Amino acid sequence: MKRLILSLFFSLSFVLLAGHSLRADKAKTVPDGRYLYMSTPDGAQREGSSTPGILVFSIDDDHKFVRRIDVPVFSEGMRGFTGCTATGCLYFSTTGGTLGCFDPATDKVKWQSKFKQGCDRSCITPDGKRIYAPTGWWWSSEKDGFIVVDAETGKKIEQIAVNKRAHNSIASLDGKYVYLGTEVTLTQFRASDGKILQTISPVGESGVFPYTVNSANTRAYVCLGKHAGFDVVNLETGKVTHRVFATDPKSGQKVKHRTHGAGMNPDETELWISDQKGKKLFIFDLTKSPPAPKGHVDLSMGGHGWVTFSLDGTYAYCHTPDVIDAKTKKIVASLVGPNGKPFASSKFIEVQFTGGKVSKIGNEFGLGRVNEK
């Protein structure tokens, strides 16, 4: 009898362990499809925040909430969330100076590094080798600029002094350049070694604000700091060619709100900019010079301000729960978190899975993709 009881006990234990193992394996397997990985809490806005971690939404299933991944260090406040198809990983930066690497295939943080300066909205070169981390708009010193980090280990390679209040950075999709926005300045670097190629200043009205770059690296669009609008920068000559203002749909007057967020749709025919205070996205026709007004979208809430697009250009996303059909300019869905409440963040990115593996990662900036290979 004793032997029978022990036999039953071990058999039952095996079944339970096997069941647990199956559940664990199942939890790690992400079905093929397109997902929005949205980090929270946003270090720049309170609206729509959730407990520290990543909320995953299915783009293919009407942007429904899929699951939540707990990442405690995100409690420091998210400042950047970028990714790299070559490595299949996402890279986060926080107000507390933490830079880290997250693997969407395993839901694990692979490494974390801490820096006294930084880290603001960082970028990674498409080859997956170098992370360029801005030291942060909250600093104002002669050492402000980039902390360059080995993307595999998280170890610091070097620090490049550039200009005060280093804020947003972009790595061009062709792997040639890196861009950094500092106080009324846009700086272009060689991506392979961080050499400064050109400095464009003044650009924008004041402060440091987001921008976007086309795929040919010939034009940049830099948000203004005192009005809803942007500067058009010719990257071949290093000159600002036009300053374009958004106008109020009712009065026709210039909108005296700062602009925080600019994104091109992938085919580079439109530029969308965010009017935070006015709870609007203004749209401009990039097939004309200077870019011409093309309408606006009313948003459900205010917030930090941001604009980007799904990789296929079907959807526009911003700092609100609103999911916008990029063609019709209509809100077609709303992001709802696990608590049933609207969820929002300005730190998010598209991740695609094929065969249970990460196959492509988008960009947190609305970058032009006409020349993308």
What does the model show?
This protein has 373 residues and is mainly beta. It is 7% helix and 43% strand. The protein contains one helix and 29 strands. It has one helix at residues 2-28; strands at 33-40, 53-58, 64-70, 78-84, 89-94, 98-103, 108-114, 123-124, 130-134, 145-150, 156-161, 169-171, 177-182, 185-190, 196-200, 211-213, 219-223, 229-234, 239-245, 259-264, 270-275, 280-285, 292-298, 307-309, 315-318, 322-325, 330-334, 348-354, 357-361. The strands form seven sheets. A five-stranded antiparallel sheet has the order 3-2-1-28-29, with no helix packed on it. The longest helix has 27 residues, at 2-28. It is globular and about 50 Å long. It starts with a helix and ends in a 12-residue tail after the last strand. The relative contact order is 0.14. Residues 1-27 have low confidence and may be disordered.
Structural class assignment = mainly beta
Helix content: under 10%
Which sheet architecture does the biggest sheet show?
A: 5 strands, antiparallel
Q: Nearest-angstrom radius of gyration?
A: 22 Å
Number of strands: 29
Described by the principal axes of the CA atoms, the overall outline is globular
Residue runs with pLDDT of under 50 for 5 or more positions = 1-27
Overall pLDDT: 92
Strand content: 35-45%
Give, in spatial order, the strands making up the sheet with the most strands: 3-2-1-28-29
